[in-house]
Amino acid sequence: MRTEGTVEAFREAEKLVAQRRPFEALRTLGPVLDEAADKPSVQLLAGRAYLFSAQLHRAERAFLRVIELDPSDHYARLVLGRTLQRQGRLNEAHAQVRLATTMYPDPAYQEILGEIRAHIARVNAGS
Fold first, then answer.
1. TPR repeats at which positions (predicted)?
2. For the chain, which terminus, N or C, has the lower number of CB atoms within 10 Å?
């Protein structure tokens, strides 16, 4: 990010996302996206705001862009998996969360993976 104003806008958008105010965060983040769209941190923040505002396809695109820019970003894979899960794309969600858990074996990640596996089992049992 180039300008001090851009950095300030990014920080303000982070605060707004943390406060679960995604629409305000996205308005604040607009100029930052214009200036620094190829920064993984900017795409990740936008993806989180899109996810919190149920703009799931936009969230998916933002998280995929983060992974394109930084394939080792385990958190982007985790939230991409959550986004896919909310879209009902359970097998794709499982693949992303499983990879995130392999990259970063955190108990919270493993819990999410277990949740997706249980959901897949319920769906398969009902078939």
1. 40-73
2. C
CB of 42 closer than 8 Å to CB of 36: yes
3-state DSSP percent of the chain in helix, strand and coil, to 5: 80, 0, 20
Listed residues 23, 38, 70: the one ending a domain: 70
The domain in which residue 48 lies consists of: 1-70
Q: Is residue 65 domain-shared with residue 78, that is, in the same domain?
A: no
pLDDT of residue 1: 47
Q: Which of 35, 44, 30, 47 is nearest to 2 (CA)?
A: 35
Which regions of the chain are under pLDDT 70? Answer: 1-2
List, for residues 60-79, the tens digit of each pLDDT value: 999 999 999 999 999 999 99
Residue with tokens 């607009």: 30
Q: What is the DSSP letter of 111?
A: H
Residue 110: name the closest of 100, 119, 120 by CA.
100
